[in-house]
Write a structure and sequence with these properties.
By secondary structure, this protein is of the alpha/beta class. It has 10 helices and 11 strands.
Length: 266
């Protein structure tokens, strides 16, 4: 992989390519084309790309000569949004509490990733593993990285773009890969401020639950809106009309990878 600031832009593009994946109308051919242009290989089989249907989060594993990329898609379907709303906290890992929906998605995705890595060890072994994800895909990537590290998979780094907070302050402090997390947010994107503080029942009383980032996101300032990106979304032949409308709204907003994040990454 290239060095320095090119890491972020490279991984942002790979996070963006996850939106070729959909439970019903995945464009795997389009994903292949994009990855080939970046000199990456997708060893397509029933386990790659991977689909965690209960949570609605999907992704793929691509390989180059010296590294492997695990890219996890953000919200784009009804199941994703329902999973995002499961923002009560559950105990997780080495300490603290995390978003219940993200935890469920991470557990399902980690199992799928492990199956794929074990299926073709010669393809993946001795390669640095990087994780990337946009929006909730970035939050899930943080949890997946921890799960992989527990299973002795060496994670080189995690790059997130417009990701919501994952857990509480105790979890953020205890997170074992904290130095390897590189988070980015664009000016005007509200998603990194989520989830909001809330109240949860603990025994017989209500307790306020708060979220905090593992590491403060790097703020990107510059181009944040794009009509062109929004209109281009309607050209996706395999997407349904509701998916096109929602996608266009996201692609127009400061939350868009194509319109707001990638142009501002130097």
């Amino acid at each position: 992989m290239t060095d320095g600031g090119h890491h972020a832009r490279y991984l942002a593009h790979l996070a963006n390519h996850t939106y070729h994946l959909n439970s019903r109308r995945s464009d795997v051919d389009g994903l292949h084309t994009q990855l080939q242009q970046m000199k990456l290989k997708l060893d397509a089989n029933p386990g790659n790309p991977f689909y965690d249907l209960p949570s609605g989060h999907h992704g793929y594993i691509a390989v180059a000569a010296d590294h492997a990329i695990i890219a996890i898609r953000g919200s784009g379907e009804a199941d994703d949004w329902r999973n995002n709303l499961r923002f009560w906290q559950v105990t997780y890992g080495l300490g603290g509490h995390v978003h219940a929906g993200f935890a469920a998605a991470a557990q399902g995705i980690t199992q799928a990733i492990q199956v794929e890595l074990q299926r073709a060890p010669a393809l993946y072994q001795n390669k640095a593993v990087w994780l990337t994800g946009h929006s909730s895909g970035g939050s899930v990537a943080i949890l997946v990285a921890q799960e992989l590290a527990i299973h002795d998979i060496d994670v080189a780094g995690i790059y997130t773009f417009g990701a919501p907070k994952v857990g509480d302050a105790i979890y953020a402090r205890a997170y074992p890969l904290r130095a390897k997390v590189h988070a980015f947010a664009t000016l005007g994107d509200l998603v990194p401020f989520l989830p909001p503080a809330w109240f949860a029942r603990v025994g017989w009383r209500l307790q306020r639950q708060r979220y905090t980032h593992i590491t403060s996101p790097h703020l990107l300032v510059g181009k944040t809106l794009s009509v062109r990106a929004a209109l281009a979304h309607f050209q996706h032949e395999r997407a349904g009309i509701l998916e096109k409308i929602v996608g266009a709204l996201i692609d127009f907003s400061p939350h868009s990878l194509a319109a707001a994040y990638i142009p501002n990454l130097k």
